[in-house]
Write a structure and sequence with these properties.
The structure holds three protein chains of three kinds.
Chain A: H1 7-17, H2 33-65, H3 68-74, H4 77-110, E1 116-123, E2 126-132, E3 138-142, E4 144-148, E5 153-159, E6 164-166, E7 175-177, E8 183-187, E9 193-198, E10 211-217, H5 219-229, H6 239-250, E11 280-281, E12 283-287, H7 290-303, H8 317-329
Parallel strand pairs in A: 1-5, 4-10
Antiparallel strand pairs in A: 1-2, 2-3, 5-8, 6-7, 9-10, 11-12
Helix pairs in contact in A: 6-8, 7-8
Chain B: H1 12-15, H2 19-40, H3 46-78, H4 85-114
Helix pairs in contact in B: 2-3, 2-4, 3-4
Chain C: H1 2-6, H2 18-25, H3 40-69, H4 79-114, H5 122-141, H6 169-197, H7 210-242, H8 255-289, H9 296-309, H10 325-337, H11 339-355, H12 362-385, H13 387-393, H14 397-426, H15 433-459, H16 476-503, E1 526-527, E2 530-531, H17 542-545, H18 549-555, E3 568-573, E4 580-586, H19 592-608, H20 612-632, E5 641-644, E6 647-649, H21 659-688, H22 706-724, H23 733-760, H24 769-800, H25 810-840
Antiparallel strand pairs in C: 1-2, 3-4, 5-6
The chains are: A alpha+beta, B mainly alpha, C mainly alpha.
């Protein structure tokens, strides 16, 4: 399915990118149909740019240092017409045509049926993710999106407060999330993996930290995962986790957060029903560990300055311990399905 | 030294140079507005309506530009006052602008042949 | 040409005392009183200097940002500080450096280049400068009080609404920038009238220096582009202050409206900045190659085409907002179209270089650097014009790299070339060639090292406007390289400052002179009064084609070698062929422009701080100062003046011959563009949320607009009658004054009747978008009514003071233009708010 880019392109790419490691968020390391098409376009454009730049530099060089005959040719108004009008007119017509054709093929991709529907709402400064469960019940999550490989996924994009922009470079272009409007984006992952996305429209405060991950998994795994994710949270098994649960409810966490199956039904903050199965907490670079959970609860303003969750510094270490145990226990699904 | 006696060439003569790019702008605004208005209407027939409007508006714009160019070329051949430098200069400037504007009109129209109206 | 050289307009020797009189009349006020100077050279120096100051300040902000991003997870700057700094960097660079510095260069260079003695409106120029100076400094200093805006330089609502940006920062931006835009428009009026009407006799349009062409197009674009953003800032400020929901989706507003209006200004803005810089290049390349510009006409065509095409690009910045693909592709096509004129210019410069011999001195180096950087920036511009590619790189560092290549390459490099090139015309010493080379290489290398890697970091997924990034992203090496490049670039600028300190000794009279052997008029021997006598121009490079021109001009052989009326004056010529028409008497130094600017700035800033009473007092004082300065303008006709060569020029002109009439027309074009932007907003918002438009039954009665419409038309008729009865002498004044007052009353009554009809129908601006838009129409009508009212009062006062009669009538002519425009705009407004909802229903 994936065709390898030509050798020259690969060489040029590796020279450009050098040893600059990571490609989880790179336009030039496509993992989906849309991003692959655009990456081809990008390389085409770079080639076009290199040729034109070379022509201009050569013309300047010849104008200064060239032989009298060449300089005489360059000095004519005809040279201005040929190089300044005719040449760009032809090349730009071709480029425009190709660009429009590419848009057309993106549109055609959007028309394919039986896609997976996922709604993502940009909020200051996190992502509310809602899947549509097997029987149509909404399944809420946050900051982590799971998608099946090889199936078109339609993202319904909205904004809760200010403008955000949904962007997963490895899968395709970005689309703005604008209050009062609903946008759609069709992406198709071609290989399993973890792709990073980030808010691309400045949204104030910790905009820089508003990232998320897209986990592309085999279609069967995805279906099984969604099946499990639909279920409410289980009652905690351990004593400490049960203490954590009552603390969670007593401290008022439920005013903002939902844990399905309990009385916590707040919708201001992320849904925590299966938080124990997520990869990170608060920001995507903070792995979900007991220690980081506690830090986010007590010291969130240092991790993500300006985020809307107050710091719960009144909680004592044993209480935090219990709370963390409870939250980590909230996973009816295990990560690898 | 006859500078003050010669009849003054009105500024409108310069503004006429701007007719061609103004035609481009009118064409551009019309197709853009047409697309915007068609897309808030009922989804049926959007494509055909956009197609017709694009064809009509483009034909009108190109006709306008061609007439303009023809007039400029003709007045260049018949103008008795070869010596009137400003006249000749303004005419040649207009001609080149007409050419660029025509290219602009064609480029604006090109996508309507390929892309369906109102598709996101 | 033969008659020009053999048969001079004036004979030698010139009378004794003629030159001394000229010098006395044009003398620059001494010591601290220099702030009262209105002469274009003094104001030009101040203007360029202030713009450079803001370049340095915004540059320091850039360095702070580069330091923060040099390593991942840095804590050098806090998140909020960084957000304020990048907002201020962009805002200051665009609004306080790029546009003003170009206007400043225009004010400094144009009169000399065109062979005029000064700008046509010296006090307006001084006002524009001081308003910018005072307002700009106050705006910048908000950074030190943690009051700076942090919404990004394009201030997208709803992030900048009162809900999500409750502080004063956004208000400072909206009022401060709105006000600096007014200063830019004042400058644009000055430049348009200056270029079209004050050229030396014989300088036909096709002999005009290319810089003057670019400034003309520049100013014309400002007239049509800036009103859109002025309207946008008004809407957002009204929303923030009074809850008129223009951008609030829940009540029918739309956040995208801001983007449409902002970028309708913002994209032409790029070319507004670039064109004059290209004009500088078109001056420098021929001078340094010793040959006329190849393809002069092609370049003029390119400039005009750019001026138009750049208005079809604004959605280019909105490719990711979910607009239909076909609409996007229209803008993609226009983006391609605008690349053509740039291509024409680039190859015209190359052709010029090829046709002569390029001297590789500092200005040429900067021009070559510009060619490389700008071409690369233009090519990435073509790339982002490809919609699917833009979906990926929009709002990433790729775009940051792109627009810095275009703006720094397209504007800062030519500007530095211009500094090195024109310094000898305005300084006793030229700038140092040795330091200049170092400056160039540091800036060129530093720039590319700083910005080229950003293309790659953008492609690797780095969004713009992030205050930090995690190490795992692998962006750290590229960012470190960028920071090193930024430091190199800053070192180059620092070296330039040293060069300025060591060598710049401002002086026009004793300037180093034409060391490049250039061919245009600014290289004539000049003083604060411009050239001693005004030359006859017979080609595009007069100094090359008339080798004796400099000596003859200096000796006073050409037109107007002294003062004809005992005042400052310049020759007004016809717009296309530059035949002399009348002698314009210019005002001298005065305090009013400075004070008016200070009070205007105080008005806007106090308004931001919600000190309403104090703000209103300052506003009234500002208007008073302007009226005081206007009182002495439009002096009574003087006897005609013989400027030499058998030409006797009148000293007074009214109607469409008057320079003042032209300025008023330009001002009304600004007002008209503003109103069209409003009409667009109205219709646009209707397409977004038609459900908020009331049923006809809920509107103000269909008969209600009849009364205001009648009053408006009647007012126009009354004013025409007043014009017919302009007094020939003191006796006939009374009727004229009564009629003018009546006309003013009609205008106010029309406004009151419309507003009360809407109010009685239950319309409230904060209810929903329809209410807000109807209120906005009334607001804009009130704005024009107020202006017409002040001007009518002024005309009546001048009539009472014996300064207005059937001959000395410019003030009345201008009142007429303003009044009839106001009537036209108000009638259109009535048609829109009463007619459209019924039509749409």
């Amino acid at each position: 399915m994936r065709r390898a880019p030509s050798l020259g392109v690969v060489l040029a790419g590796s020279v450009l990118l050098g040893s600059c490691g990571s490609d989880v968020q790179s336009v030039l390391a496509p993992g989906g149909i849309q991003s692959r098409q655009i990456a081809y376009l990008a390389w085409l454009l770079f080639g076009f740019g290199a040729v034109v730049l070379t022509i201009v530099i050569a013309a300047v060089w010849l104008a200064i240092r060239g032989s009298p005959r060449i300089r005489g040719l360059l000095a004519q108004e005809n040279a201005v017409i040929a190089l300044g009008i005719a040449f760009p007119a032809v090349t730009l017509t071709l480029l425009l045509g190709y660009g429009v054709w590419l848009m057309r093929s993106h549109l055609d991709l959007s028309h394919t049926r039986d896609a997976v529907d996922i709604e993502v709402v940009g909020e200051q400064w996190w992502w509310r993710v809602t899947y549509s469960g097997a029987d149509g019940t909404p399944v809420a999550s946050a900051n982590e999106i799971r998608i099946p490989v090889g199936m078109p996924v339609t993202f319904t994009l909205k904004a809760a407060d200010v403008i955000h922009s949904f962007w997963v470079p490895s899968l395709g272009g970005k689309v703005d999330m604008i209050p009062g409007r609903t946008a759609r984006l069709r992406l198709t992952a071609e290989r399993p993996g973890i792709y990073r996305g980030q808010c691309a429209e400045y949204c104030g405060g910790p905009h820089a930290l508003m990232a998320f991950e897209v986990v592309a998994m085999p279609a069967a795994d995805y279906a099984a995962w969604l099946q499990r994710a639909t279920r409410p949270a289980t009652t905690p098994a351990s004593e400490i986790a049960r203490r954590g649960q009552s603390l969670f409810l007593a401290t008022g966490c439920g005013a903002c957060h939902t844990v399905r199956g309990t009385s916590a039904a707040g919708t201001l903050g992320p849904d925590l029903t299966h938080i124990g199965a997520r990869r990170s907490i608060g920001i995507d670079t903070l792995p979900l560990t007991r220690e980081n959970l506690v830090r986010f609860i007590t010291d969130g303003q240092h991790i993500k300055p300006g985020n809307l969750m107050p710091e719960f510094r009144v909680l004592q270490p044993p209480e935090l311990e219990a709370l963390a145990s409870y939250l980590l226990s909230l996973k009816v699904t295990d990560r690898h399905g | 030294m006859s500078a003050a006696i010669k009849p003054v060439r009105p500024f409108g003569d310069f503004l006429r140079v701007l007719i061609a790019p103004a035609i481009w702008f009118a064409h551009f605004s019309l197709v853009y507005a047409a697309e915007a208005l068609i897309c808030i209407g009922p989804p049926a027939d959007q494509a055909t309506m956009m197609g017709w409007i694009a064809v009509l508006v483009t034909a009108a714009a190109l006709t306008g530009l061609i007439i303009l160019a023809a007039r400029l070329l003709r007045s260049g051949n018949t103008a008795p006052s070869r010596s009137d430098r400003s006249e000749a200069w303004l005419r040649r400037t207009s001609l080149l602008l007409t050419l660029l504007s025509a290219l602009g009109v064609v480029w604006t129209t090109l996508p309507t042949a390929v892309l369906p109206a109102c598709a996101l | 040409m033969a008659d020009a050289t053999s048969n001079y307009p004036n004979k030698l020797p010139r009378p004794r005392g003629e030159l001394a009189e000229l010098e006395t009349i044009w003398a620059v006020p001494k010591s601290w009183r220099i702030v009262t100077s209105v002469n274009n050279t003094t104001i030009g120096y101040f203007y360029v200097g202030t713009a450079l100051l803001f370049f340095l300040l915004a540059g320091i902000l850039a360095l702070l940002m580069r330091l923060q991003l040099a390593v991942p997870s840095n804590t050098f700057l806090s998140q909020e500080t960084y957000n304020q700094i990048f907002t201020m960097h962009g805002t200051v660079m665009m609004f306080l450096f790029a546009v003003p510095v170009v206007e400043a260069m225009g004010i400094l260079l144009l009169p000399q280049m065109l062979g005029a003695r000064d700008q046509p409106f010296p006090r307006l120029g001084a006002f524009a400068f001081w308003a910018y100076f005072v307002g700009g400094l106050i705006f910048f200093s908000t950074l030190f009080f943690d009051l700076a805006p942090s919404g990004g330089w394009f201030m997208y609502p709803p992030l900048t609404s009162s809900q999500f940006s409750p502080g004063m920062g956004a208000d400072f931006w909206l009022l401060g920038i709105g006000f600096i835009e007014i200063s830019a428009i004042a400058g644009a009026i000055e430049i348009i009238v200056g270029v079209l009407r004050t050229r030396a006799p014989g300088m036909t349009l096709d002999r005009m220096p290319m810089f003057a062409w670019t400034m003309l197009i520049f100013a014309g674009m400002i007239v049509f582009a800036f009103p859109a953003v002025i309207l946008a800032t008004m809407l957002l400020e009204l929303e923030r202050a009074f809850d008129w929901p223009f951008f609030i989706a829940a009540r029918g507003g739309d956040a995208l409206l801001w983007q449409h209006l902002f970028w309708f200004f913002g994209h032409p803005e790029v070319y507004i900045i670039f064109l004059p810089a290209a004009g500088m290049v078109s001056m420098i390349v021929p001078a340094m190659s010793g040959t006329p510009l190849v393809g002069y006409r092609f370049v003029v065509v390119a400039l005009i085409a750019t001026g138009f095409f750049s208005f079809g690009l604004w959605v280019h910045h909105m490719f990711t907002t979910g607009i239909p693909a076909l609409s996007l592709s229209f803008f993609s096509a226009a983006s391609m179209a605008v690349a053509l004129p740039s291509g024409i210019q680039v190859f015209a410069w190359i052709a010029t270089i090829a046709s002569g011999r390029l001297r590789l001195v500092t200005p040429s180096l900067f021009v070559l650097g510009f060619l490389f950087i700008f071409t690369l920036g233009g090519l990435t511009g073509v790339m982002v014009a490809m919609v699917p590619f833009d979906w990926q790189v929009h709002d990433t560092y790729f775009v940051v790299a792109h627009f810095h290549y275009v703006l720094v390459g397209g504007m800062v490099f030519p500007l530095f070339a211009a500094f090195y090139y024109w310094a000898p015309a305005f300084s006793r010493r030229a700038l140092s060639e040795r330091l200049g080379r170092w400056t160039f290489w540091l800036m060129f290398a530093g720039f590319n090292i700083a910005f080229f890697p950003m293309h790659i970091s953008g492609l690797m997924g780095m969004p713009r406007r992030v205050y930090t990034y995690p190490a795992v992203m692998g962006w750290d090496i590229l960012n470190l390289i960028s920071t090193i490049g930024a430091v190199l670039f800053a070192a180059g600028v620092g070296l330039f400052l040293i060069d300025l300190i060591r060598n710049l000794r401002p002086s026009v009279a004793n300037a180093a002179g034409n060391i490049w052997k250039a061919g245009t008029l600014e290289w004539l021997p000049n003083d604060v009064y411009g050239p001693r006598s005004i030359p006859i121009v017979t080609s595009a490079d007069p100094l090359w084609d008339q080798p004796r021109l400099a000596d003859d001009v200096e000796a006073g052989r050409y037109y107007l070698p002294g003062s004809g009326t005992g005042r400052r004056e310049t020759i007004v010529t016809s717009p296309i062929e530059a035949s002399s028409q009348y002698l314009l008497r210019l005002p001298g130094p005065g305090w009013t422009p400075l004070l008016a600017a200070i009070f205007t700035a105080a008005f806007f800033m106090l308004l931001t701080a919600k000190a309403i009473t104090l703000a209103l007092i300052c506003g009234v004082l500002a208007v008073a100062m302007i009226l005081v300065w206007m009182w002495d303008s439009d002096p009574a006709p003087h006897r005609a003046v013989d400027i030499g060569g058998g030409i006797t020029l009148p000293t007074y002109a009214s109607g469409s011959l008057s320079h003042s009439w032209w300025a008023m027309i330009v001002l009304l074009l600004v007002a008209g563009s503003l109103y069209l932007a409003y009409v667009f907003s109205y219709l646009y918002l209707w397409t977004v949320s038609p459900q908020f438009w009331p049923k006809p039954a809920a509107l103000a009665p269909a008969a209600s607009p009849v009364l205001p419409a009648f009053l408006l038309v009647a007012g126009s008729a009354i004013l025409v009658a007043a014009g017919r009865g302009l007094p020939r002498n003191a006796q006939g004044r009374r009727n004229f004054e009564i009629l003018t007052v009546l006309a003013a009353v009609a205008l106010v009554a029309a406004l009151i009747s419309e507003v009360s009809a809407q109010w009685q129908s239950g319309l409230r601006p904060e209810t929903n978008i329809h209410g807000a838009l109807v209120a906005m129409a009334a607001f804009l009508q009130a704005q024009m009514t107020l202006a017409a009212l002040v001007m009518a009062g002024f005309a009546v006062a001048r009539s009472i003071g014996g300064r207005l009669d059937c001959e000395r009538r410019v003030v009345f002519d201008n009142l007429g233009l303003l009044y009839h425009y106001t009537v036209g705009q108000s009638l259109l407004g009535l048609l829109l708010v009463h007619g459209f909802p019924r039509l749409a229903a």
